[in-house]
Amino acid sequence: MIFGIDIVKGSLRGRIRPEYALVVLDNDKEEEYRVTRSKLFRMVRELKPDIVAFDSIQELFSSKRELVDFLKVLPSSIKFVQIAGKESLHAIARRYGIRMNIRSPADEARACAYLASFGVGSEISVFFDKTIITVSRNRSLGKGGWHQNRYRRRVHDEVRMIFNEIKEILKNKGFEFSEDVRFGYGGISRGTLLVNAERSEVPINSFKTKNVQVRVEAIERDKIEYIPLKKRVRHLIVGIDPGSTVGVAVLDLDGKVLGVRSKKGWSFSEVIEYILSFGKPVIVATDKSNAPEYVSKVRSAFNAIIYTPRDDMSVERKIQLTRGYKVFNDHERDALSSAIEAFNSYKNKLMNIEKRMPAGYDLDAVKAGVIKGIPLKTILGEERREEKKEKKTVPSKVDREEIKRKDRLIEELYEENRILKEEIKELRREIESLKQRIVSISREEHERIRRDNYIKTLEAENKRLRMELSEKNSKIDELESKLAVIKRMRYLELFEGWKWVKVLKKFTKEEIERVEKEFGINENDIIFIHDCSGGGKTTAEYLIKKGVKAIISSSPMSHLASSLFEEAGIPVIDVENVEVEIADEIVLLNSKKFEERYLEEKRKMEKRKLDLLEELIQEYRLKRKNI
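The line above is the sequence of DUF460 domain-containing protein; the predicted structure tokens follow.
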């Protein structure tokens, strides 16, 4: 059973509770639901699917701790699989022939489920492949005399017995483990076993007796690890330009340029390593009609197909193919042009494969197989079963008219064949004539082409410089506008009793460190925060330790952060309750109105503390009275 999930509305950190589209694949059955987060988790616990697949883990869990706590209560056989990574879900679905509407959460959930069934995606791993078993007392022994010592000895002896029994089970099952023992009066007070196996493989479960408790837990990772379900090899088309300076161009099977590089004295092993960093070549291409030995050597290293043009590629053809791509020298241009030419020669065949591909197969791998000459049906695993039947030939009467008709057809085909051969000869002569014309192009024509290209280069440079000038003029206008605002704020600061305050764009650790580094955060500073949504315990405690005077917030702050400021006696004032002037990273505050509001907030905080204290006293008196 596989769950495919996508969020429909809401978010984990927003006011609207999230709802999810859920598609359940169970053998040949497919069911679709719309569920809340709590119902989704309940279905996972009750139905125990093999895989729970989703676009991103952040749609389900707001933190690693929340994820770990949920996984602890589930069987370890359930895999949580994230489908998208560097590629979007839509791109991956397209590669596997799955059609989907990107605006439909149900379609995205369905795509996640089917892609996971194909072995696509990465399993979320939060535990190491190690398990810790802790055997200890189930209760505190306390102080006591002779009878208490006898009881202590009996409990410690029970801990020792259960610890040794578990060790014996692990040894008999062939598990590797290490142990750590804390001895107590009459036996063991605590024993720990670190087993080199996943939690699901260890044949011991947590349990308690009257005097002993056994806890079996997986060891948590520091960070979430993403483990691919299947290792996918990207197939490539590689263009090589050999020589003292080697040029290499790498394309994928969609014709997208992944990398172009050249290097003088580039060793063969380094070239191979560079190519492998992108994937595995299925075609190695050159711009020569006869492949150089170096190119053949690269082809052999990858057991790839070699591509050579019918004739050596001309400079004009190379320039035409690489127009629009950034190349730094002739070596990179030659390598890239040969790779593009190879792709173009297979382009129609590859497009035809895309149209014929059924869902559930890696399009990239299928294309690579077809390029190597493997039939599509063989790649897709379709086996043709032909039944051999012996058929008895039944003598039939010869139809003379049918024989004459076929003789005429044969004569017509012979004549058509002769005409086509003549046309082929004529076309070959024409091709040879055109080759001679190309060879006889004058130096003046070459010079004209070079001059035209130079003029085009100058025109392009001129256009680029004009655009750059326009951008700089726009920047000057923007800065002048900002300067006018700053002058006005400076006037307010000097003559109207306004005060400059330090600004945090976001309530995050990184933003606090940036402001600390650039401006410093000192005692009695007033801090203005544009976006308070990212704030938590760490960020709040940092500002509290700095001894800031007050916080002015432009958006709602988390309850935890505001509570910490409340406990520290630092008011959090909404921007609507003070008068400010805001311009980008500069904020001015009306000192007089701020002080009035600040004192009012401090009085409210003191009142809340007194009210709380009074409430506690009343509760205490009530309890005393009941006693």
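Note on the example: Residues 2-120 form a domain with the Nucleotidyltransferase; domain 5 fold (CATH 3.30.420). The chain has four domains: 2-120, 129-221, 235-368, 497-613.
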